[in-house]
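Support case: arginine complex. Customer-provided input:
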Amino acid sequence: MPAPQAVLAARVQDALTAAFGPSYAGADPVIRPSQFADLQANVALPLAKRLGRPPREVADAIVAHLDTAGLIGDVQVSGPGFINLTLDDGWIAAQAQRALEDARLGVPRTERPRTVVVEYSSPNVAKEMHVGHLRTTIVGDAIARILVFLGHDVIRDNHVGDWGTPFGMLIEHLLDLGEEAAARDDASVSDLTAFYQAARAKFDGDEGFADRSRRRVVALQAGDAETLRLWRVLVEVSKRYFNSVYGRLGVTLTDDDIRGESFYNDLLAPTVQELEDKGIAVVSDGALCAFPPGFTGREGDPLPVIIRKSDGGYNYSTTDLATIRYRVDTDHVDRMIYVVGAPQALHFQMVFAVARMAGWLGEEVEAEHAQIGNVLGTDGKILRTRAGGTVKLSELIDEAVERAGAAFDEIKHDEPFDAASRAAIVEAVGVGAVKYADLSVALGSEYVFDVDRMTSFHGKTGPYLQYAAARIRSIFRKGGLAPDETTGPITLTDPAERALALRLLDFGPVLEQVGESAEPHRLAGYVYAVADAYTTFYENCPVLKAPDAATRASRLALCAVTLRTLVTGLDLLGVPTPERM
Ligand code: ARG
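Agent response - structure generated as follows:
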């Protein structure tokens, strides 16, 4: 569907060339939101400078050549030379009607499909997922869903931390507990924090255990079969746990999407070799390092990316370089989106810079770090338990679901719910509340995890949006109608109908923008704006009790498009919409 902004821009461009000649073809008409009309074109001001003519005169000349037919209802020159443009009601109605009749709500598939890796969640094996992982998981999943909807080829990639020296002590601790403990999901193993801490304590306090652990690391790295088998037992325990979290959150990641650090183990040496061959990796203080240009320390000294430590071991950066190389060579991706916490920004900048030096990244293959801001407690500090530990994700969700239940019992319902239905709805509301709160914040910004605010049915919250969708469904139920069978035709008379329809037309452009910038909070904001426009419409325009049959049919159609836009938009954010509330 042509977005209002794009169609108007094309018309103003045509007027420009008609008025001033072909050398102005393709000039930016500077279409902006307007206080006085739907949009305004500001091109007359910069153009007047170039032409050495008064801006108002330039604006008048553009307007004189503007083809308004079927699109523009009113045009006014105001102020120093702004061109205020009001869309024709019939045009808006026709576009809304097209959205109604299209399964994709008029949102086109991209003309330039790309192969995109969205790397997200990426928790660490044998460690509890923390609230930072919550955000990368939720945001990454939304980005993946949106790109798929837009028609891109998306590879979801869960880059779990499943390799490294801690596995020596973790395997030895597992052996001490007895492997069966893992098989029967005994708390000594399945409580990952406790398991890790117990292993750590023995490592620090028991010399014999520490020795065994170190030998175990060597065996693991040498590919010893029995050691690898034990390592896999640990990975499986963690996967079960990750999947329980993903399942509860409605996150689309599966085991097939896991490509952890261990996957790249055999690729580290060849990657390093290539960097050496290309003269990018050089020995410095016994370690093999790359020095990407532009990165300096406090004293202006070049900052290294350590590629191989002086003891011969590889590290986190080496794995990330091997990962990029593999994705380019084998997956042939042309875009990589890393949904990872903001504290790792410098790491990624430097790794990307080295990858560019190696020619793995460049014009055709882009990598970007979607920096995720911290989640704070109500005290404004990084969210921690009272004892100062990391907060368990499952406990946060439990808390949200509990509060959602209390909030749910206070709102108006069309019908009483039995205990099982209530529990299912409340779970969806609690999870939706957490996810929407997380997604509505700009990526890099921190936010306060305030359960009361996020589970409220008022304001910019998940529950408010879910409720808005449920209210529309309830109109159709009351009218004995199905939203999908609504045919319109849509006509716009009331200003609230017009404002709602115009909002609905922005769905495609918003999604396109979110696909480019990988910023789901813009979609979160948009969905809220739709619900808001709907509320004003609903307060001003009776639907089932509309004055005549034609108005009723039109309003039902507007309700149907609004419902589908809300449900689709929320689904792309991964927020469920219960049928009834
Ligand atoms: N496992 C890491 C963590 O929990 C995140 C991994 C980020 N991705 C990457 N390619 N380095 O902090």
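Residues 281 and 290 are 5 Å apart (CA to CA).

Case will auto-close in a few days if no follow-up is received.
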